[in-house]
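Changelog-adjacent note: as of this version, every example in the card shows the full chain rather than a window. The one below runs 640 residues end to end.
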Amino acid sequence: MAVSTPLLDKIEIPADLRKLKSTQLAQVAEELRLETIDAAAESGGHFGAGLGVIELTVALHYVFNTPRDRLIWDVSHQAYPHKILTGRRSMIRKIRQRDGLYGFTKRTESEFDPFGAAHSSTSISAGLGMAVARDLKGGDNNVVCVIGDGAMTAGMAYEAMNNAGALDSRLTVILNDNGMSIAPAVGALTNYLSWLVSSRPFLSLRDIAKQMAKRFPRGIQTAAARADEYARGMVFGGTLFEELGFYYVGPIDGHDIDTLVPILENVRDAGNMGPILVHVVTEKGKGNPFGGEHKEKYHAVGKFDPETGEVFKGKSNAPSYTSVFAQSLIKQAEKDDSIVAITAAMPSGTGLDKFQEHFPDRTFDVGIAEQHAVTFAAGLATEGLKPFAAIYSTFLQRAYDQIVHDVALQRLPVRFAIDRAGLVGQDGATHAGTYDVAYLSCLPNMVVMAAADEAELVHMVATAAQIDDRASAFRYPRGEGVGVEMPEEGVPLEIGKGRIIKEGSKVALLSFGARLQECLKAAAELDGHGLSTTVADARFAKPLDTDLIARLVREHEVVITIEEGSIGGFGSHVLHFLATSNMLQSGANVRPMFLPDRFVGHGAPKEQYEDAALQSQHIVEEVFAALNHDSRVLQMKAEA
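Full-length structure tokens:
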């Protein structure tokens, strides 16, 4: 559906925006909102957060001289409108597609993206670094960080603010608040106070009182004595920011562009008065076509009809891994009231929203605070509870010290449910579950499992529930299962034991995780070439099933390990075992297959696995390479 955007059509980059009159900005914002919705209808993706910062995006690019002034978006899933205004409108309908725009900010994509981000709470640290670098080089540009109230739940944001306050560098932080219960306080009086306190001549209580007396009727003049208290946020939360050394301005209606612009101009022109925090209140998903109250519904969506809000969904006969995990954990918790679940601000993404419906008192959402989540789980474990910490692989990276120091070192039985293991499609490298096998399998006493299919995931949840003498982890991919028959309930697996799926005699494919189906396809093709192929599911990266590995190496000419993880993971542990057992010289030709030693770009999952060379045809080619055969020659012979 084409939308009418006459003013937006004149804007290629922010310099064009700054040629407009301030009275035209409200129309620009409305057109930008329509364009964002229309583009998201074609591409899907994160767009609810972007709709909430439309006016703020326009105001920031209008007031600040980007890209010379640095504008950093925390997490940056709200950056779709920013991309439209910064020379990327023609590509916005290809966002998150292969060779298209990335779904988050990316330094190599545009000079208007000074810092790449997709994990939260990094903006203030990065912005402070840029501000200090500017000061050391004698520059005078502005540095502006936009961070959401959700991201402000992470300790890193406060570490950065504490440092910024101590350094007293000129830095502007925009707190985009779309969740705190302060909206009723946002109105004409509050907006005026915020403008007033941000204006250089009125930085004292006395000056504010004088201006208030001139502006408002006598009945309201009594508020003047408290104006600074309100404007600086003593009632609304500004005290903490001021204690950290920030000059607080707000709260401000983030959708009132006529107020936003003059306040941001005052902040821009405030001179070297140290760090400033501007508190902006917005509505996430403002103007969305869905019309529901569930914000998570439009946080990230697939393609949809922009007029009706109907989301187009593909058909599937298999449940998602996330839902299988949730239902399995619920069944275990029904039998064991010591089971508790922890999430770091991802209840629906991890499936724990379903668990919470059944066990609200045993579910803990700690916010975007993975470090705290892990140590909190460790504390629960010390008291005999059975914590399941459900955290995406890419986010668990943020809590590695806590995994090592607070969990593994003390042999506390925390269970890590690692969703989004392997490549994750359109979210790209920042969200890929690439490294967890490597960074967990190197830890003493850790149990590391990977589900080959949704039925195996059920059993691994049951297995983790029974492990009470050490930490454990089980990983599973994003998306739907493979359609296998599901067990009625999970049965604990024997720790460190894999399974043979298909028996052969010449080639062995040893899979760890969700590439098992590709291994079975490869085995069928290899059998067709006369290469009898065994397929095994390792189940465990730690402890390894050394008996199974030794048998495969003794009885086959070629053994290929296959995993959806980085170098240093399952295959590396297999090779280390074989090397220290003196089995590499006299046994089979052993080759590991893993994700390439580079960051795999975003795209559809199938495209990503083609790029990573982990599809069935790549496995066949690896076998032929190990046998010094040319698969194309064998194919020609077979066809002849």
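Structural remarks: Residues 499-639 form a domain with the Rossmann fold fold (CATH 3.40.50.920).
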